[in-house]
């Protein structure tokens, strides 16, 4: 540490750091340095590195030299701004803000106006000529410092503020007079002394170090840890501290503060877009306490038109920055263009206008919806700003996933009036039962409910509750409020700033005065995150509509993708949908679901209860034509692409009823005694069905089941071939642990194929392969590959068996494993590359050595999970197979893997 | 095939083959050739090789040249004996017998007297001068040939024979006159023609080829396949056919036939030992139809004394061969000595005396009891005949196992009179319920019964029933009867030739007229296979008594053994017993069994039902002193040796009652509502408990359980160390799948150790290691080995998870897997070296690379199975651990592995 630079200064057109130093200076810090270098007006400041944070977290103390270095840098700020820290005449005030590698909105703590005390306050008054502003700044500082550094709960301050407001009969903070604010500050001091037996620090240096330590400490507060967990951010990254000279957006009506995006973060439209508040400090915008106004006249006009506000009134009450402060606006326009061109990506900026002077406080790559991500990526390629490869790497699979969320069915909502309207913060259409707190959301979801979290606003404490909710609805806040930013990040449907609703937390009601409606906790509503509309009850949704940019983007994806993508589909409908999503074939068609439809289950049960081969074959003969038709339709829907059909997999007891009532019904239907049924159910009972009589083990005891299914598959294909349809059936044997389990099925397939070829007078290519889902099969892949034409890794079961962990039972302790970092992630969600991956790697290597024509794929849930898809690519898979809705994600993940590989 | 010699001739002092050619000529054939070379009198003959059999099994036809070659060899026999095949004056008759690599007694078919027809019969009469003998030979030939070659069931012949006996009012076959036999033959021919529409072949060459083909075919008859399955003999070995000139032991009272052992096959005593029948053919002895007489005067005298027969009567009625035919006897003595010296092992010989001339028909390494195997091995070393290494390789682990069978407790049988006495054919003491057929035995055992199979005699059809029975009791037959030979081979307690009993199959009763006792099916009796005594009811047994030879032998075993042998033991008693058996430490001490004793289960249940950490700790504090005392006693019993204690492993629901009644009792005892208990039972329910919340996963959720157990272990050790006892505790963490599951337990152990060391003022070495029983742990063994001090392979679970096969549920299909050869053996009995073994090999290699001090062992059931022990040796294990009774077997298997390795 001793020889490493601990502090980086910027200001007055120079900077010691730059944008590439995010790991060391945090995102916010690095970009401040970069902006300073670019000549963009930023208040001067310096950054204490993330390494100091990590070091402090370990040793609980600072390097001996740090204090001196910080003092030197404070001096440098002084020189630039011509103010002095702690000076009673012309005091330098600073902000102390955290900034880690990646943006963690609202998660880390900030202190503004630091350096104020009863004496420097007088200097501030003198310097600003604004007594009320100065006392307000002092009040805000005490509140923030008290909360963040001294650990005095926010409520203690709010209580006093409310009391004074009540006593003086005012509604808004801004209506408080200087005298009122003096009273507030007096009471703050008394409260801190009387209730907490502390003295509010008056020494600016004590304040400074208190704040620095609080920022470093906040890296490990619970909210931050929670956020990192959800977003897979390593704990050892640490945060930097940015100490920046204060500028004020709340110095009167010639001051303002705002946030802006170089393009629309919700739609991706190429329009300058943002919100600001007059006479406010930055936190006011993000916190969503006042609903802010538009930056450009154009968006303000649009908003006005949409909300039925006439132009005059709009310009009078809801003016835009463009109209209100043209010079600052024009300067901001120049800056945003410069920044987007410089960073070659959409920027999210914070700015403050102090008495007409514009300062940029932050710029960063803007979070965006999936739709926006695609549109921006495609348009930037068209604008020549980035390459196709960069475009592909810019859209995360999660963003693409958002694009695939269902929308409200236009037919279904025809004539249905929304009950409220807010801002369309994050797209998708969802319904759920109303809950009013994050804790309730968590509890209800635990009980299996789907909920919509309804709040005035959200805060970082709500992260977990937001995560589990279907969607989020807030009464206040704008498109950049906490709920909006976090909701978009999560790909969670979100409507914010919905002023139509009035929430009463205490009796758990939400009222919509406009329509005289009242909803209670548990009532169902539907949110449309793409329009901001809220509906009563559950409305029908439909598959997402895909934009032109989406098609262009996905075409590019396929240009760079080398690995195949197939689908898991059990019905012709699923097959068709998956084809539309870009699937080239079926990687897993499960046949057992077909056994449940209509009267089929009766024949299946007859088969299971049969005591002789003959009666079993009789029951199977009823199923044959039905299965043949199933396969006919599915293979037809996938014409030209291979269709892998897995032979029966689940244990037979899954087809029998287990309750007395259902057993009685079955007994009556089959004209059997209930005892007979109970007896068979008992005889099929298993202690560990996961490790029981299922998969290929069924077909080895009852080859006639395999015979029926293989016959159905090959007959269906033969019919199609005769009809001129390019059918490509493949037969997959599940749960192989030894090649000797595979060989009989392969032989049977060839025998049946010969018969079918003769009967139909056609020949066609078909393949016989196997799942690799038992560890032993992976270990002995070479022996199996000599016989099998393809391997399909069933990573669900392979994970269960490699971990010795039942997915159905792991719920009791697996979340704790992830929480305690025993495992980096739930291995059923993300493929365990270290352990299960080792086994897969071995099997692929051995399999290919033994059979260089072996086709290798995956058909477990992991086939649609991006990091797992990347693993499959690296391991040399021919394809991944996943559920229809995951197909585009798998395509993107595969393309990104290929691009990364070529780098 | 074309260029390989298909037929090998021997006779007249020369031989084309020798004893080393067992694979090609079969055991019987190779030894016939060897004996011929040694100048021992054998009738001339030739052997058709096993390769011809294998070739025939594949192609279903013979090589073009074979017929000519056989004819040439038949000519050679003719020349030696001066008789001609098919000649009407002086016909050559032959035996056609199978002979595979290893002896398969009674399993393969034999035809004697081949070459007889109505014409050659006249030649035989002329040549032998004995009409009755000749017709009897013809009758026997027709019966055997009809049965074996023509497939006409034995009963058809027996029926006719019985009818004629009844008509002529005679009891024994030997009482039938020539005229009677003529009638029998006439009726045989008629029966074959009328009932089966076949003609008995009269052409000797047709007979010859029919018999050869039948022998080859018999390799694949059901009994042979069954025998091979039980004895793990490959199907592709094939059998040879031996064609040998007939000699007759039934040419009158100057003729005899018998079997002899160079040493006692039951005890190993160095005494010539055997049985013979006057005027009989070989099969008569083995079939046990007549009880034979002794060969030596000494054993005949002993038998007489034991059965209270005075010397005169004994010499008159039960003369020995030594007394009856001194010259033949003396010649036989010379031969047996020559053979044992030549083969350097105990021989089992068949001989025939034809009109005073001795012929050896077979010699082979004699089957023996475990006790005999050890005694013979030790004595042969002492006699300088073999080396210690050879001695060790001569005793199979199965034979040693027999030695470890319990015996009747002499105290317990004091004053208890046996109800019957037979020959002590195979040692051990067992009890069970009487059944009268092999089929019944099988059925009763399926239903969970223990049975004693009681038969007049046994036949190869009974193999499976014998296998599943506790013991076998036969009314007839000698020490070399089918029941005796097979029983010894199986290590199955067996009493034969028990003339005291009278069996009535039809009403399922056995009577003992001497005591006027009647036993029904299902009644319990006890057999003592070491004395031949039979007792009513169940008698107390005791641990086996070990002979001096056993001790010597086991000392030699340990001289050559390099791998350690520990025991799985949960109690001080087991620990002591295992130590006596030679265990050097405990490889697995399960702690859960201790949780059930007495009142402990209450505290355990309190702990499980506890809702807070405090109440859980309170319950655990009750268990701590009890566990400490358990560990104190066990570690003490293993003083000087390491004791590996596994932390709690089973899921908690195993400790709760599951029936309503038991739950009610528990509720009353604990003063809780039954709902509360049901609720906890339900919340602990698992779909796949094998893959559920158990092993280290418990301790990670409830670290206080680990804390209690680790504290108890280390406190117990500390107390012992203080008392001067050399305590070596080791803590084993079960079910690890990731090193992160191990580290917290290791840290906790070190923390507790520090506290215990301080409290007791002592320090001692202890180790912390882990089970490797989850495939993932094996795969990631390197990361785990960096932290763990030892690995203990839990091959039970590792097998379950690697195969994806629940041991509890596999019973429904796993036997079929072995039967259909999908798997070579039940992987829960014999370690699957191909699959699970691959994983173990990997883990050992990776583990040792990461930690060269890592100690590696096995504690699954396989630790006491010989082929698995050999695998562990080859894989570089430090030790195997098994149940106390398997310790000597593991020691022997380890020594044999080391000796094989050095070869």
Question: What do these coordinates show?
Answer:
2 copies of one chain form a homodimer. Chain A has 903 residues and is of the alpha/beta class. In chain A, the strands form 7 sheets. An 8-stranded mixed beta sheet of chain A has the order 15-25-24-17-18-19-20-16. In chain A, strand 12 (347-354) and strand 13 form a beta hairpin. In chain A, helix 23 (600-609) packs antiparallel against helix 24 (613-637). The radius of gyration of chain A is 32 Å and the shape is elongated. The two termini of chain A are 33 Å apart. The model of chain A has no long low-confidence stretch (mean pLDDT 91). The interface between A and B is large, with 47 and 47 residues.
Could you list some keywords that capture this structure?
homodimer; 903 residues; alpha/beta; 8-stranded parallel β-barrel; 34 strands; 46% helix; 17% strand
């Amino acid at each position: 540490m001793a020889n490493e630079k601990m502090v980086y200064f910027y200001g007055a057109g120079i900077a010691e750091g730059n944008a590439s130093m995010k790991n060391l200076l945090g995102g916010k810090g690095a970009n401040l340095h970069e902006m300073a270098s670019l000549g963009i007006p930023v208040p001067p400041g310096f950054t204490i590195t993330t390494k100091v944070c990590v070091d402090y977290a370990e040793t609980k103390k600072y390097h001996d030299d740090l204090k001196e270095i910080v003092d030197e840098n404070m001096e440098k700020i002084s020189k630039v701004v011509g103010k002095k820290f702690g000076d009673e005449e012309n005091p330098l005030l600073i902000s102390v803000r955290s900034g880690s590698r990646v943006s963690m909105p609202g998660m880390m703590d900030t202190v503004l106006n630091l350096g104020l005390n009863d004496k420097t306050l007088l200097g501030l008054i003198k310097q600003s000529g604004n007594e009320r502003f100065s006392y307000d700044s002092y009040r805000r500082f005490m509140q923030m410092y008290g909360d963040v550094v001294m650990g005095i709960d926010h409520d203690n301050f709010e209580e006093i503020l409310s009391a004074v407001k009540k006593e003086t009969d005012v509604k808004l903070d801004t209506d408080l007079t200087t005298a009122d604010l003096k009273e507030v500050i007096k009471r703050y001091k008394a409260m801190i002394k009387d209730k907490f037996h502390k003295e509010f620090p008056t020494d600016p240096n004590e304040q400074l170090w208190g704040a620095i330590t609080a920022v470093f400490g906040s890296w490990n507060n619970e909210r931050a840890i929670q956020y990192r967990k959800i977003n897979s951010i390593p704990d050892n990254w640490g945060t930097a501290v940015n100490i920046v000279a204060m500028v004020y957006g709340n110095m009167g009506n010639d001051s303002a503060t705002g946030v802006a995006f170089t393009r629309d973060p919700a739609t991706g439209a190429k329009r300058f877009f943002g919100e600001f508040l007059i006479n406010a400090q930055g936190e006011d915008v993000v916190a969503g306490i006042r609903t802010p106004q538009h930056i450009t006249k154009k968006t303000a006009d649009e908003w006005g038109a949409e909300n039925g506000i006439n132009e005059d009134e709009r310009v009078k009450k809801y003016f835009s920055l463009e109209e209100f402060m043209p010079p600052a606006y024009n300067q901001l326009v120049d800056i945003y263009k410069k920044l987007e061109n410089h960073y070659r990506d959409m920027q999210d900026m914070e700015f403050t206008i102090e008495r007409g002077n514009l300062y940029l406080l932050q710029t960063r790559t803007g979070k965006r919806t999936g739709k926006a991500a695609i549109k921006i990526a495609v348009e930037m390629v068209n604008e020549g700003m980035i390459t196709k490869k960069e475009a592909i790497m810019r859209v995360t699979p999660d963003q693409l996933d958002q694009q695939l969320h269902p929308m409200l069915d236009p037919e279904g909502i025809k004539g249905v009036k929304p009950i409220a309207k807010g801002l369309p913060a994050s797209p998708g259409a969802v319904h759920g039962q109303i809950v009013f707190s994050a804790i309730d959301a968590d509890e209800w979801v635990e009980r299996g409910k789907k909920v919509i979290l309804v709040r005035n606003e959200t805060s970082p404490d709500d992260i977990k509750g937001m995560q589990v909710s279907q969607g989020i609805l807030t009464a206040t806040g704008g498109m950049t409020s906490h709920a909006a930013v976090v909701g978009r990040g999560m790909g969670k449907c979100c409507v914010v700033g919905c002023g139509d609703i009035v929430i009463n937390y205490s009796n758990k009601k939400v009222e919509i005065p406009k329509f005289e409606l009242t909803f209670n906790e548990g009532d169902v509503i539907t949110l449309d995150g793409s329009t901001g509309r809220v509906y009563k009850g559950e409305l029908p949704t439909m598959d997402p509509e895909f934009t032109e940019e989406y098609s262009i983007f996905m075409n590019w994806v396929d240009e760079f993708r080398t690995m195949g993508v197939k689908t898991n589909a059990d019905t012709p409908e699923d097959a068709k949908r998956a084809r539309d999503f870009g699937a080239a074939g079926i990687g897993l068609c499960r046949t057992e679901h077909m056994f449940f439809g209509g009267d089929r289950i009766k024949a299946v049960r007859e088969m299971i209860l049969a005591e002789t081969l003959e009666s079993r074959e009789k029951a199977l003969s009823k199923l044959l034509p039905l299965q043949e038709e199933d396969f006919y339709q599915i293979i037809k829907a996938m014409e030209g692409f291979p269709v892998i059909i897995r032979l029966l997999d689940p244990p037979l007891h899954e087809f029998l009823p287990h309750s007395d009532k259902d057993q009685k019904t079955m007994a009556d239907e089959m004209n059997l005694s209930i005892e007979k049924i109970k007896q068979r159910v008992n005889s099929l009972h298993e202690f560990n069905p996961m490790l029981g009589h299922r998969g290929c083990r069924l077909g080895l005891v009852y080859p006639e089941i395999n015979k029926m299914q293989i016959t159905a598959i090959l007959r269906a294909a033969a019919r199609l071939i005769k009809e001129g349809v390019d059918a490509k059936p493949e037969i997959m044997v599940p749960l192989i642990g030894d090649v000797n389990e595979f060989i009989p099925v392969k032989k049977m397939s060839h025998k049946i194929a010969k018969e079918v070829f003769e009967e139909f007078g056609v020949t066609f290519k078909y393949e016989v392969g196997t799942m690799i889902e038992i560890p032993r099969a992976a270990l002995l892949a070479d022996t199996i590959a000599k016989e099998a034409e393809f391997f399909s890794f069933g990573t669900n079961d392979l994970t269960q068996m490699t971990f010795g962990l039942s997915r159905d039972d792991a719920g009791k302790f697996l979340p704790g494993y992830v929480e305690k970092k025993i495992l980096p992630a739930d291995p059923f969600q993300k493929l365990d590359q270290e352990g299960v991956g080792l086994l897969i790697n071995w099997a692929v290597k051995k399999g290919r050595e033994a059979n260089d024509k072996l086709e290798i794929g995956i058909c477990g849930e992991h086939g649609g999970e991006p990091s797992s898809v990347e693993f499959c690519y690296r391991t040399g898979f021919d394809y991944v197979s996943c559920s229809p809705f995951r197909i585009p994600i798998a395509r993107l993940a595969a393309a990104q893997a290929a691009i990364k590989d070529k780098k």
